Amino acid sequence: MDQQAEQPAPILTQPAPAPVADDGGISGPFDLERCVTRALNANPSMTGIRAQLQGAQFGENSALGKFGPALKGTYGYTYYDRKYTSSNEHSDWVGSLNLTQPVFTGFNLLAGWQKSKLNKESTEAQLTNVELTLVESVQSNFLSLLKARMDVKSAEDSVARLESQLKVTTAFYDVGLRPKAEVLDAEVDLATAKQELLRARNNVSTQEAQLNTLLNIPIEAEVEYVGELKYIPFDLSLRDCLTRAYANRPDLLIGQKSVDMAQKDVTMAESSFYPQVDATWDYVNRGDDPGLNGGGAYSERASEYWTAGVGASMDIFQWGSDYYNSRQFAQVVKQMEAELENTRLNAGFEVKRSLLNIQEAADRISVAQKSVVAAEEAYRMAVARYQAQVGTNTDVLNAQERLTFAEAQLSQALADYGTAVSALYVAMGEKNLGLKEIK
């Protein structure tokens, strides 16, 4: 299915959110977009990933700092049990400074810095991934809340219809036109409908509590969630969606960064194949007392001096340890490449599945709307026939049950459609906070 048929599709349109007050920012109505924005700012999962990103930035700075010189200072005292100079002193106080500048490390420092930079970029992609997951969760729960409210309205209408029918049936029974069994049937159906209404109202409260949790709002807080399902056409093709997904999905970027970081690990492992070159500068001051003053044991030689030089070192033979270590990391690169390809395949499947779910839900909406219209007319006719004494109470109750079922199917199709649209945007790696447009 490369091109989607144009079908009516639900969208959420709500009044503009009220200004945030000093009560924790929960005053005024919360539409879908405001809910998502609040979650992205306040949900604890966002705080955690932002801290991880800040840590990755510090890690990059740390790796960059290794390119610069390192300065080390020492200060100490040594006592000798015999004279080691012409002096009678047995004490030796020494202070020194050592400055070391890496010159060449077999590309180890460069690869380490590049890996830390890639890690920061990967963490940024993880931040986007967490945002998308949170957006989908909030939108899904918001749509479920709207569906639950539609179910409450349907249940209330059902109770009202059954109460009206019970009154009519009772009136007919009182004048001897209907048997007692019809009154009992009407009472049983009314009691069942009231139970369904109670369950629907409880579901609304549950969804509101879930939204409060996602938005980091106290569970007992009364929040005004507003919104209703509307319709707009949907005309994105599979090819368009796949193109956007392959360009934007953060998990694909994370996979690519993982491959690149594994390659940097190979470079760092192979650094032992090269000589390590360092430039050094040393300053030494010796004395007979804590102040490092000369004299005494140092009266005949210099007590203060400095040296500078360049040195190279290289591990000549390690019995294959360094070679096999580098080969091990090379296999990790292949593993990361395979996982990236698998992620890409799954991304395409998720996009395709979401498109199919959208098409299915759109078709169900169209059918359900017709079903509701037909069920309403059937119920009206059944009531009229019953009141005219040419129909039965069973016909009325069956028509009422079919109408309630048709309304439930419509609300479910609307919620499923909105959920599928939300899932499609997440599958494409895009954030559509209010599901306001599909283009």
UniProtKB/TrEMBL annotation:
<keyword id="KW-1134">Transmembrane beta strand</keyword>
<dbReference type="InterPro" id="IPR003423">
    <property type="entry name" value="OMP_efflux"/>
</dbReference>
<keyword id="KW-0998">Cell outer membrane</keyword>
<keyword id="KW-0812">Transmembrane</keyword>
<keyword id="KW-0472">Membrane</keyword>
<comment type="similarity">
    <text>Belongs to the outer membrane factor (OMF) (TC 1.B.17) family.</text>
</comment>
<dbReference type="InterPro" id="IPR051906">
    <property type="entry name" value="TolC-like"/>
</dbReference>
<keyword id="KW-0813">Transport</keyword>
<dbReference type="Pfam" id="PF02321">
    <property type="entry name" value="OEP"/>
</dbReference>
<protein>
    <submittedName>
        <fullName>Transporter</fullName>
    </submittedName>
</protein>
<feature type="coiled-coil region">
    <location>
        <begin position="358"/>
        <end position="416"/>
    </location>
</feature>
<feature type="coiled-coil region">
    <location>
        <begin position="145"/>
        <end position="210"/>
    </location>
</feature>
<feature type="region of interest" description="Disordered">
    <location>
        <begin position="1"/>
        <end position="24"/>
    </location>
</feature>
<keyword id="KW-0175">Coiled coil</keyword>
